[in-house]
Write a structure and sequence with these properties.
The protein is mostly helical. α1 crosses α2. The longest helix is centred in the N-terminal third of the chain and has 55 residues.
């Protein structure tokens, strides 16, 4: 009887540890992602700089230069995305049109619904990107 109680107690402690670890990790990840989304590209640049600083043991002046370079790189990538956006949208639209030729009418309607939801999310992300260059 005593062994049974001991094992039950150990299992409960083990499961509680798993639960607390999972909840804590979830809170940490959610907080980190939320702060990155809300902070936009500058927050991402700070995170990249912070990670490089810790891994490369950068001085304060090096960190400042790395941050500037990361921001410039982000802006150049943003301009590249903006230039190629119409081409990207055309490729996706063409692919969707090709897929729809293989679908039934009901499936085509569902595909249109999925594609419209995709476009809404994409436009929302793009608008956030444009607000936080």
């Amino acid at each position: 009887m005593k062994k049974w109680k001991l094992w039950t107690g150990l299992i409960i402690i083990f499961l509680a540890g798993i639960y607390i670890g999972a909840v804590g990790t979830g809170i940490f990840v959610r907080h980190t992602i939320f702060s990155l989304i809300q902070g936009g590209r500058p927050a991402v640049a700070k995170l990249v700089t912070k990670r490089l600083a810790s891994r490369l043991d950068l001085s304060e002046s090096q960190q400042a230069e790395v941050f500037k370079t990361v921001r410039k790189t982000q802006l150049r990538l943003l301009e590249l995305r903006r230039r190629h956006q119409p081409e990207t949208e055309e490729i996706i639209s063409s692919g969707i049109a090709q897929i729809k030729t293989e679908l039934s009418q009901k499936q085509q309607e569902k595909m249109d619904e999925l594609y419209n939801r995709f476009l809404e999310r994409w436009n929302m992300i793009r608008n956030c990107s444009d607000q936080n260059p």
